[in-house]
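REQUEST ID: PR-0412
SUBMITTED BY: lab tech R.K.
PRIORITY: routine
TASK: structure prediction, single protein chain
INPUT:
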Amino acid sequence: MHVDLALSSSRLPDRRLQDMTRDICVQLNQEQDMAAEIPTAPGESGSKGDMVTLGTLALTFMSSGAAVALFEVAKAYFERDKSLVLKMKNEQGQEFEVTADNLSSGQIDETLKMAKQFIH
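STATUS: complete
OUTPUT:
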């Protein structure tokens, strides 16, 4: 299953958000049941390098256990910055959004359950 993930924040500067996206990508690639990459598009003529969309990752899930890994990683970042928003879009075009400031520790299990259903 392929999912596009986008991180955003009303408070973080673009550079910090992109650094966080790279950190999350590295952490997710350490999981056995998931592959993550920062998607790029060819740069325009005269530009330096490929274009990257800020805060975006392309995820491939090999099992439902990968959803657990994703939210374990995301949880750590949500606890650090309550302005984070995580949006996912699956192959069918359906969207799923989690907002850190609306997510208490008691809601994580329910959110994880909904995310697993979304990913399948």
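NOTES: The radius of gyration is 14 Å.
REVIEWED BY: pending
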